[in-house]
Design brief:
alpha+beta
Length: about 190
């Protein structure tokens, strides 16, 4: 819980009531690598802040391959529904890619208190803005038609995330095959520093 407060206090000044809300309603949960937070069609009415670890929203194709559609890393959030203000299932599996520790808050409680707690609402807006910026970057990366150049763009624009992923995870995230991944690496290392 204190890691959440440390992160929050670097961005906003939570008042004692806001901190008490987090303490009263938040739960710290630990998940093992390869465990599923939820399966497609299921929903958990939770808002989750990633204290440590790495998770992915995955869509399974008919050929049993699962594409990674989004990734949540440390100090990012996700929900067990489509979004914070929805109760509908997103239709994706959410799998733990690395051992993870999450701060879980009930969605209904979050929705109820945000209008009452301005600093907490501001923090949620900061996290949402960060998520939207990441989504925009990923959208632009995915627009690169050549897979090797898509890898180069990913590595240039999101080096921190790229370092955390295995080759297989990167291929599933960028929708490329291993030979394209290796070609992208070669292109990347040929770029001037």
């Amino acid at each position: 819980m204190e890691r959440f407060f440390t992160y929050a206090e670097q961005r906003v000044e939570l008042n004692p009531e806001e901190k008490q809300f987090i303490r009263a309603h938040g739960r710290i949960r630990r998940y093992a690598k390869k465990a599923y937070y939820l399966l497609a069609g299921e929903r958990k009415k939770t808002w989750c802040f990633v204290l440590s670890g790495l998770l992915a929203g995955m869509h399974h194709r008919g050929d049993s391959r699962a594409d990674l559609l989004w990734i949540a890393q440390q100090y990012e959030y996700f929900t067990g529904t489509k979004h914070t203000f929805s109760d509908q299932a997103e239709g994706l599996d959410i799998q733990i890619l690395r051992p993870s520790e999450l701060l879980e808050l009930p969605l209904q409680q979050v929705r109820t208190v945000l209008p009452q707690y301005p600093q907490l609402a501001e923090l949620f807006q900061i996290l949402l803005r960060k998520k939207l910026m990441m989504t925009r970057m990923l959208f632009n990366i995915q627009k690169v038609t050549d897979g090797a150049f898509r890898y180069v763009a990913f590595r240039q624009q999101l080096p921190e995330l790229e370092r955390q992923l295995t080759m297989e995870e990167t291929c599933r995230f960028l929708n490329i095959i291993p030979t394209t991944y290796k070609k992208g690496q070669q292109l990347f290392f040929k770029l001037p520093s």
